[in-house]
Amino acid sequence: MKFGQEIDIPQPQHTDTPVAPSGLEGSSSAEQHEPFAISAQASLQDLGSLTLKHGDSFCVFDKSGDAISGPGSAQGLYYRDTRHLSHFSVVIDGARPLLLSSTLRDDNATLTCDLTNPDLFDAANGLRIEHDLIHLRRTRFLWNARCFERLSLQNFGDRPRLIELGIIYAADFADLFEVRGSHRERRGETHSPEIGKSETILSYTGLDELRRSTTLRFDPAPAKLSANQATYVLNLKPRQGRSLFVEIDCRDEECTVQPYRAFFTALRDARRALRAAPLRAASVETSNEIFNETVRRSIADLNMLITDLPEGPYPYAGIPWFSTVFGRDGIITALETLWLDPAIARGVLAHLAVTQATAIDASADAEPGKILHEARYGEMAELGEVPFRRYYGSVDATPLFVMLAGAYLERTNDLETVRRLWPHIEAALEWIDRYGDRDGDGFVEYGRRTGEGLVNQGWKDSRDAIFHADGSLAQGPIAVVEVQGYVYAAWQAAAEILRRLDDPVRAMMFGKKAEGMRLRFDERYFDEALGSYVLALDGEKRPCRVRASNAGHALFAGVARPERAAAVVRTLMGDSSFCGWGIRTVASTEARYNPMSYHNGSVWPHDNALIAAGFARFGFRREAARILESVFWASNYVALRRLPELFCGFPRQQTRGPTFYPVACTPQAWAAAAPLYLVQSCLGLTFDTGAGQIIFREPVLPRFLDEIVLRGLSVSGGSADVALRRSNRHVVVDVLDRRGSVGVLTIN
């Protein structure tokens, strides 16, 4: 390629034939596709994507640090559900550099890519520059809706080298749902680029009349700047280095600070913020350095996904498809991390309280008291082309909200926060009775109110996730097994909260409601032949006699009768359900089992963490340790030891890692938190805030660990550092340090 020649950028093609997960977290292999599915034209695993996130912006790049546009590509820079940069790549003399390595910092602060030149030829004289003489290091991070990059070049040759460096870019301003595969009949107006000496502004006005812009600023000014390329001509002496700075701004604001200065100022601020990250309240260190890496990555990913909202920290669900508020995901992530940092639970409760539905809105599946399912900010949501601007189509978020409030009070003794939340808790409890129980049979069912909403509204929200033993799909309203457990736990939590609020009469009422649910639940859901709970009751109250991981949530929520626990554990840990990487969502014996399905045979780390918590609750801590072992071994085969949203459910084989799911989010908040929650379950770790005690009940260490050290465990204003060490078949608890009046109790 000649100097000065520009490169054509492939334009994104939006498909109207989506084939995978539903408009929220769901895929479908059913006969009829979801209307807002994620297109599976390209595998995120195959692309080897690297991600960064800060606030409401995130980016997805390949291992070279490029975003390559094209059909099915999810790469680019996003802000508030709009792709502000769909193509971004670097070329040397028109050729893509060769990748040496790329890495994310352990704390996810920066992405660094090391590249070098390929053999560069001249049409007249042949080889002009031999490969591996020019080193290019790209350092990139996100801060306050801006992407900053430093390109550092150095000539390691023995003579001067003249090179042309091209930075190629484009912005399609595609709504995230377009990127996921939704087809639009009309789009807004793309404006002509505004090109200055050292900046280019790309902009678009949507059908919602909102102008969205991407400003690319270059420092120093390039030799040539056009609508889609900045060109630098660099004459590098032997050993000489040069640095170029690029700032990509998703805000429609002017900036007077040079990209060079802005880079270092923003980098300083970003690192300061990370040092003060909320999940540093307690730390985990073990005798296994590989597991330590998994834990550190989990904590770093959670810190990255947590967004500071006005009400407090909130973990966005996952990148790239779910980088926004999800009620269910936020609550479960908060439950998983409650023992480490209760501030996350407080932020989740506060935000979901202020977004709680107050009226009936059929288009959003909203009813008074119902807790948010997801929020979106893109053009399609604003226009109602997708129903997810504020969408309430999840049946479980509302009882889970009450569960979390009760768990937060138990963990922190923060009665004042719960007192302020009580009107919202009470509204959620009212929703359970008035709207959740649709037919008055004592169980909570779901069914969408319009054809645009989700067909299934439990955590398994694929169209084909709830079915009968013969494979036929269940017809609604549907009462899935885990939701009844959540309602039981919500009523138990309400009873305890009311006792603390000095309302013993209502506390007793909710206690009786919970006990009534336990009796009804056992009668209708436990199936002796299955050795487990049925998946659901359909609209005709026929049981869906399917062995599924959902049954483990009944143990997690505590609704199971103690005498049923052993059978459920035995079924879930049997060969048809436990594949070696964890417990499958659906057992291999079932009609719709497919190990490559989103919800019908795959393995989800968060699902396994909740099931393990249920095992531990009923005394099956060694089985919980087996689940932790399986998740740990899976993490050994994953890049960065970053657990994805899910794996395929193929059986584990020696010398082979798990099979990855093509469009799984990585990172995903509740998956990142799963190893942390599994540690708590194995150790039987609880807190007695009234007595100021940290309690370890029959702790068990998985086989790959001989020691776990927990530092900064807080309770009742004090904290302690504790080591748990293997001693033959037992675990010995050693208090390393105390701050304040803190007791440590071991119960064996």
Q: What is shown here, in short?
A:
The protein has 748 residues and is an alpha+beta fold.
In one word, what is the shape?
Answer: globular
How much is the radius of gyration in Å? 27 Å
Mean pLDDT: 93
Q: How far is the N terminus from the C terminus?
A: 73 Å
Low-confidence stretches: 1-7, 10-31
Strand content: 15-25%
- Largest sheet: number of strands, sense, barrel closure: 9 strands, antiparallel
Instruction: Write out the CATH superfamily name of the domain at 44-275.
Output: Glycoside hydrolase, family 65, N-terminal domain
Helix/strand class: alpha+beta
Q: How many distinct helices?
A: 17
**Briefly, what CATH class of the domain at 44-275?**
Mainly Beta
CATH level-two architecture of the domain at 44-275 = Distorted Sandwich
Total strands: 35
CATH topology of the domain at 44-275: Beta-galactosidase, Chain A, domain 5
Helix content: 25-40%
